[in-house]
Design a protein that fits this description.
By secondary structure, this protein is of the alpha+beta class. The protein has a domain at 23-111. Helices cover 37% and strands 16% of the residues. It contains five helices and four strands. It has a four-stranded antiparallel beta sheet with strand order 3-2-1-4. The longest helix is centred in the middle third of the chain and has 16 residues, at 73-88. The radius of gyration is 15 Å and the shape is elongated.
Amino acid sequence: MTETTRLKQALHEVTPAELYRDAVPPGATSVYAEVRLHGKVIATLYNSGVAATSGVDPRIENLPSLRNARGSGPTLAQRRAEDIARAVGGTIVLANSAQNVVQRPLPPAQRYVDYSAVARAQSQLRSRGATI
């Protein structure tokens, strides 16, 4: 098993909330929708346009709408939800707190990395004998 694969597995064990807890700007924490596959939530989209996924999935990790934040707010959240659902064959469930564009004109979403979560994942790998 390669080191990259081991790191991805360790990151998969860290919950999305840990990886993305700083990704949702203050005041923009309301959920827009969830993407579900076989009843399990695989992605949560926020009214800000931020997407949090439930682990590393090769079908969604390189989707253009996740790599390039063209747009913002509910419009971006909807596009990302549709792309993720299409890629995995899942369904979109809109939240009661979903906003439309008129309700929430936002600046473009920003990406954040929780370096402490990455460090924890690396520590887990090292404790299993992996070299990073």
